[in-house]
Every structure is written in C-alpha cells, then in structure tokens.
From TrEMBL:
PANTHER family: CONSERVED COMPONENT OF ABC TRANSPORTER FOR NATURAL AMINO ACIDS (PTHR45772:SF9), CONSERVED COMPONENT OF ABC TRANSPORTER FOR NATURAL AMINO ACIDS-RELATED (PTHR45772). Transmembrane segments: none annotated. It holds the Pfam family ABC_tran. Residues 36-282 form the ABC transporter domain. InterPro entries: AAA+_ATPase, ABC_AA/LPS_Transport, ABC_transporter-like_ATP-bd, ABC_transporter-like_CS, BCA_ABC_TP_C, P-loop_NTPase. Keywords: ATP-binding, Nucleotide-binding, Transport. It comes from Pseudoclavibacter caeni. Residues 1-24, 303-322 are annotated as: Disordered. It comes from the Bacteria. One of its GO terms (cellular component) is plasma membrane. Residues 1-17, 303-315 have a biased composition (Low complexity). This is ABC transporter ATP-binding protein. GO terms for molecular function: ATP binding; ATP hydrolysis activity.
C-alpha cells in the first residue's frame, strides 16, 4: 500500500504545504521532521494483540488523523504513547527523549498531553478548578514554597488569567463557577481540550474529539483544532468521522488489527481502495480485509466466520456517518 507520489500534502486553505514524508509513502514511512518515533511497540491483552506497530513516525507541526475500525488498537496506541499504559515491548521517543517507562504525568510535563474518548473532567470541581489542575509546575505544590504565600500567589493569579483566557476562547468563560458535571458532553470535550492547553504542550493527542459533540459545537471544535496547528502545536487525533478527517487532517495513519496498514495525505489515503473499502464498504479488489487476513495467517489466528471485523465495522461506521 505504498504511494510513490511526492510526499507534499494538500494545499487546501490552512493546510501544511511543506513535505511531510521524506521518501516513498507507506506504512511506517520516514518523516522530514518527526516529533514522535516509535519502534516495535506491542501490547497484548490475554490472547488479543491490540497493538503491534513496527515503526511509526508522527510528523511535527501538522495534524495527523489516526483512523481504523473498532478494535484496531488506536486507543491502546494512544495509551502507550502517553504513558497511561505500558507496552510488552518497544521503544518510542518524543522530541528526541525516550519515553519508555515514563509515567503519564511526566510525559505531560515534557509537553505531550492527551484527551480521552470519555472525558475525564472532574465532575464535582468547577470548570475553573478543572482548568487550574491542567497547569504545570505549580509552586504551591512544593512544601517550602507553600509556606511563603507571596511565592505562589502571583503564580496563582497568572494561572487563573491563563485559564480564563482559554475558557473565553472555548466559550466556556460564562461557566467558570459551574460544576463540570453540569456541562453538556460537547462542552466537557471543549473543557478537556482547554485544560490540556494549560500546560503549553507541543504535542496534543485527542481521542475521538467529535464523539458526542452536537453539530452546533462541531465547527467550533474543528476550528480549535486547526488553531492548535496554527499556534505551532502538533496534533494527533483518533476519529471515526471521515468528514472531519478530510476537513482538517494533513496526514492520515490507518490502523487495522493493531498494525499500521496505510499512511499518506488525506486526498490519497481516503481514496485508496483499501481504505475506502474498510470505511465506506464498497466492493473493491484490494481491501484491508485481505491485509487483516494476512496478519491473522501470520499469527496463526483463525479467520472469523464474518468477512472480518474491518469490513463489518466499516459498514457500521458509514451508517453512523450518514
Ligand atoms: N484493557 C483491556 N483489556 C482487554 N482487552 C483490551 C483492553 N483494551 C483494549 N483491548 C482490546 O484491544 C483491542 C484494541 O482495542 P482499542 O480500544 O485500542 O481499539 P480502538 O481502535 O481504539 O477501537 P475503537 O475505535 O472501538 O475505540 C480490542 O480487541 C480490545 O478489545
């Protein structure tokens, strides 16, 4: 599934125009400026190999979409890269620093933050308190500094100003004193993204940012994600909504059965018969189902009775999309 075309992404308004990949495009291909480099990452749960990624590079300064059918391993890979889970094997680095064995709170201090498929805002804290928790290196956390209020009061004010600035951007400033529990699902997604930005990250990972967001908030959420790139951040997001992927992604990575099975610019990947087949259910000669069958055969896993999870879920995804 490699693509010999030049690795220059589309030039649609606001999209990156520099080449993203540095050679032939395909699964695991090299990037001109990778921010994350992962090698040999595996993670199994019982007999299920959730992730088996030979090599993956995430390009810096652009928006990458991680797509794939249900159960492809996307969230597990997110958990591993962000230190919320530990792989059985493998190494990966963020901005040149090895992250193997580094816990999630340290990963976020290094500038890599993530949101969750199901939002993790603390329901019984106010919106503003949730935001403050996102700030890093808070001086009041040190016992010595806590004993000297002037040392942390100034910082406390700065944190609150920053939080309010972000809440205004995300149109949540009017909710600052409300419990997070009182927000709608979409507003909680916005809060989670806003909170992630409190730590001035370089790399933002969003797990299904559109799930549960009503259409009225969709445009604003898309705008926020595009602005992250405009502000110089790198974004990696998992998404089932192919409209969103086409609208904002500069690069697309496709996973199936734990592996990276395709990569490229959206205009190419989204028209790849294999990907189209997996997501849109059209009958093409070449499909991810074949790849999945090959992977299963290699592993000695018997093929399920149905055509395969990829195709089955692809239809479901398409139905939801309509
Ligand atoms: N904690 C766990 N315990 C057991 N199995 C797990 C666990 N987490 C993930 N899995 C399994 O690993 C595989 C990959 O799951 P994962 O959630 O990473 O897929 P996904 O691509 O994110 O799917 P979805 O799009 O449905 O969220 C699935 O077969 C899943 O059942």
């Amino acid at each position: 599934m490699s693509d010999p075309r030049p690795a220059t992404p589309g030039t649609a308004t606001g999209r990156a125009t520099e080449p993203i990949a540095s050679g032939v495009i395909g699964p695991g291909c090299a990037k001109t400026d990778p921010i994350v480099i992962a090698d040999g990452i595996t993670r199994s749960f019982g007999g299920v190999t959730a992730v088996d990624v030979e090599h993956l590079e995430i390009p810096r300064g652009v928006i990458t979409a991680l797509i794939g059918p249900n159960g492809a391993g996307k969230t597990t890979l997110f958990n591993l890269l962000s230190g919320f889970d530990h792989p059985d094997s493998g190494e990966w680095s963020f901005d040149g620093t090895s992250l193997a064995g580094i816990p999630s709170f340290k990963v976020s201090r290094l500038g890599q933050v993530r949101t969750f498929q199901l939002t993790k805002s603390l329901a019984m804290l106010s919106v503003l308190e949730n935001m403050k928790l996102g700030a890093r290196d808070q001086r009041g956390e040190s016992l010595w500094r806590a004993l000297f209020p002037p040392l942390w009061r100034a910082q406390e004010r700065a944190i609150e100003e920053k939080a309010m600035g972000l809440l205004e951007t995300f149109l949540l400033d009017g909710k600052r004193d409300d419990y997070a529990a009182s927000l709608s699902g979409g507003q909680r997604k916005l809060l989670e993204m806003a909170r992630a930005l409190m730590s001035d990250p370089q790399f933002v990972m969003l797990d299904e940012p559109m799930a549960g967001v009503n259409p009225a908030l969709t445009q604003s959420l898309l705008g926020h994600i595009v602005r992250l790139r405009e502000q110089g951040m790198t974004v990696l997001f998992v998404e089932h909504d192919m409209h969103m992927v086409q609208a904002i992604a500069d690069w697309v990575v496709v996973m199936a059965e734990g592996r990276v099975v395709a990569e490229g610019v959206p205009a190419v990947v989204m028209n790849d018969p294999a990907v189209v087949d997996a997501y849109l259910g059209s009958n093409r000669d070449r499909d991810l189902g074949e790849l999945v069958a090959e992977i299963r055969a290699e592993r000695g896993v018997p093929r399920p009775a149905a055509t395969g999870a990829v195709r089955a879920t692809a239809h479901a995804t398409h139905e939801e999309d309509r």
